[in-house]
Amino acid sequence: MMKVNEIVVVDGFIVSRYTMAILPHPFHDRLYSKVIEEDGEYIVKMKPIDIIARSCQYYGANLKGRRDGTKEIIGITHKAPIAIEPLNEIYVFPTTSPNDARCVWISHMHVLKYEPSRGERTTVYFKNERSICLDVSYHSFVNQLYRTAQLRTKLSERVEARERKMQYLFRMDKTKDLDKIKDLDSDLDLYKPKDS
């Protein structure tokens, strides 16, 4: 680990609930990333897309699988939002094509508000009162934000539906078990001595 202009430089990084944005950061003729977290910033010796891919793997999936999941759930393939780790609500979205060297990844949960800026740019305000100005039109940013919200909602609905089904099946099994106990009790009644 080293410091450049008081920013810590690290070899690798995993996206967490505290990660707000991952920006491309040219550094000595290479493309690295500048990661903005709730409590600080890092320069990471990886491209933004590589951080996203590594983070998906860390949480037990791969980037292709997450993209396929997004396509299956909301039908989006171009500039698809990624559910890096749905249980911890880690959803990110790209501002341009992920293969574009200018692509910035934004954490959906940290966006507080956003507004258009000069020259087809958008200023994004995070929940911790930090802000960044992005080279993306307001309309495009809002579209990406809504797509990610749609993915979060649909995925959450699927999880809740599965849980309701499991609860229903669990109750059904309990009801069947109670019926079996009642049947067994009635069978045992046949063997009780009758009062004369």
Describe this structure as you would to a colleague.
- This protein is an alpha+beta fold and 196 residues long.
- The chain has one domain.
- The protein has three helices and eleven strands, in the order E-E-E-E-E-H-H-E-E-E-E-E-E-H.
- The strands form two sheets. Strands 1-2-5-4-3-8-7-6 form an eight-stranded mixed β-sheet, with helices on both faces. Strands 9-10-11 form a three-stranded antiparallel β-sheet, with helices on one face.
- The longest helix is centred in the C-terminal third of the chain and has 52 residues.
- The mean pLDDT is 88.
- It comes from Anoxybacteroides tepidamans.
- InterPro entries: ComK.
- This is Competence protein ComK.
